[in-house]
UniProtKB/TrEMBL annotation:
It comes from the Archaea. Signal peptide: none annotated. Residues 105-258 form the YhcG PDDEXK nuclease domain. Gene3D superfamilies: 3.40.1350.10. The lineage of its organism: Archaea, Methanobacteriati, Methanobacteriota, Stenosarchaea group, Methanomicrobia. This is Nuclease YhcG. Residues 16-83 form the YhcG N-terminal domain. One of its GO terms (molecular function) is nucleic acid binding.
């Protein structure tokens, strides 16, 4: 037992020395920030980040969002440091400061959808359904502040009905957020449709206390220059990102996995037989 405790003390002592060496290249303020989070959070950051700039990013995020150790680990392993604020947007032209900066920092590129069990050839409905079925994971990936309001959210405009793929409210930005997932490469017409949806939400749902609605397109891939041109003359705030799924199911699984309709039919048959 003494040997066990002795070994643990050596490990902790070694980690403490590493911690001091690691932060010695930063100023005293950075070191003070690191002391504001729990020791084992520090250990996670110390052992999983590549440099002090990245480490300081996660220290500040942990303090700001009160992350648990598991949430911190998730964000480091999903490389949030290199994804946050990287989406292509027109926020500088369509939102006032500091809202434009805060909104830009809220978006990521790419979004990591590894929590979804989808084949490489999935379609838009499958993507949308999977995101809703795993909405807790989706909210974690979207980031702090997002509140889910609904899927295929109906808006009526002078008797015509329109449906928003996914509608959220961001409690920190104080605005509605329209999210449109696309299981294909970005097309310029996507921006036009989303611009309409954002305008409709502003006109129908937004109150005087709310800030301007934001639109987010999350596509399977994109040509950055095409996105830049598509957003250039769009007057509503829109951001465009890609998503990645590094653990796709093999395509042959598509035929072997039952659909929602097949499951419901099977359950209906069981109930009738009883």
């Amino acid at each position: 037992m003494c040997k066990t405790w002795g070994g643990r003390l050596l490990v902790v002592s070694s980690l403490i020395r590493r911690w001091y060496c690691f932060w010695s290249v930063q100023d005293e303020i950075a070191k003070q920030l690191a002391t504001q989070i729990p020791w084992w959070h520090n250990v996670v950051i110390l052992t999983k980040t590549k440099n002090t700039d990245e480490a300081l990013f996660y220290v500040q995020k942990t303090i700001l969002n009160n992350w648990s150790r598991s949430v911190l680990t998730h964000h480091i392993e999903s490389d949030l440091f290199r994804r946050e604020g990287k989406a292509i947007t027109n926020f500088k032209a369509t939102l006032p400061k500091p809202q434009s900066d805060l909104a830009r920092e809220t978006l990521k590129d790419p979004y990591n959808f590894d929590f979804l069990a989808l084949t490489e050839e999935h379609n838009e409905k499958e993507l949308e359904d999977a995101l809703v079925n795993h909405v807790t994971h989706f909210l974690l990936e979207l980031g702090a502040g997002f509140s889910y309001l609904g899927k295929q959210y109906k808006l009526e405009v002078s008797g015509d009905e329109f449906f928003i793929d996914l509608l959220f409210y961001h409690v920190k930005l104080h605005c509605y957020v329209v999210v449109e997932p696309k299981a294909v490469k970005f097309k310029p017409e996507f921006a036009g449709k989303l611009n309409f949806c954002v305008s409709a939400v502003d006109g129908i749902l937004k109150s005087e206390q709310d800030n301007t609605t934001i639109g987010i397109l999350i596509c399977k891939s994109k040509n950055d220059m095409v996105v830049e041109y598509a957003l250039k003359d769009v007057h509503k705030p829109i951001g465009v990102s890609e998503y990645i799924i590094t653990k796709n199911l093999p395509d042959e699984f598509r035929s072997s996995l039952p659909s929602i309709e097949e499951i419901e039919a099977e359950l209906s048959g069981v109930e009738e037989s009883q």
